[in-house]
Amino acid sequence: MLKVYFIGGTQNIHGDRKRFIQQLTIACQSGITMFQYREKDHSALSGTERLALGKQVREITRKAAIPLIVDDDLKLAQAIDADGIHVGQSDTPVQEVVKKASGMIVGLSVHNRDELIASGDLTGVDYLGVGPIFATNSKENAKQPIGLDGLFQMNQATLKPIVAIGGIHEDNVGEVLKHSVSGVAVISDIMESDDIPLTVRHLKGEA
Ligand code: 3NM
After folding, report:
1. How many domains does the chain have?
2. What is the ipTM of this complex?
3. d(CA 203, CA 207)
4. How many CB atoms lie within 10 A of CB 117?
């Protein structure tokens, strides 16, 4: 499920909901293995608009049998019957999420070893999002890139499945895939692609 993990919200496509739905629909038919609805940062939708778009996202992902994760909003995840929930270090504590999200996939973002240790008991956490590997423009207040060395160190520090994230594109994915990750998570590489099927093949290391 983590192999090509597409993430996005309207803030990643200049608020253009129609184009967001178009790109998601194509991605779902082009070999992505998971989608995370991440409506975040200053221009994110909220309230009924967020719920309405979330329902549409659920419909598209369900039709294509793509697991749907919601970023840091358990109520929304439950309301749209998502398959999972993802939280970061400054979101709801992951142990609380694990307790409340029974039966759901749970993902956690970690930047480095110290954060991993500080995250405490990770029982019930299904995978770790590790990054940013490279510089990214898709996340407000993104941390310093950890590079491939940082990814290597995180690999040594945990047995949890790792999905690498941050600044991953067709031209650098090959290096990332050498680091025994379960997959790569991307926003811009797919959201801004004019040829999503080819982009996804690149991200799988197939093209
Ligand atoms: N989380 P792009 S980096 C959502 O480091 C997100 O935890 C990150 O977008 C982290 O593929 C990031 O366009 C943005 O670089 C990834």
Report:
1. 1
2. 0.99
3. 8
4. 10
pLDDT in tens, 114-133: 999 999 999 999 999 999 99
CATH number for the domain spanning 46: value is 3.20.20.70
Q: 3, 30, 58, 109: which one is catalytic?
A: 109
188 carries a ligand binding annotation: yes
Any atom of ligand 1 within 6 Å of the Cβ of 203: no
Q: What distance in angstroms lies between residue 121's CA and the mean position of ligand 1's atoms?
A: 24
- Is 91 annotated for ligand binding? yes
Our CA dihedral for 53, 55, 59, 60, rounded to 10 degrees, sits at 20
Best residue for ligand 1 mutational test, from 136, 172, 176, 192 (most atoms within 8 Å of Cβ): 136
* Spatial contact of 111 and 142, defined as CB atoms under 8 Å apart: no
Domain range enclosing 163: 4-203
CA-nearest of 123, 128, 48 to 80 is 48
Known catalytic residue: 38?
yes
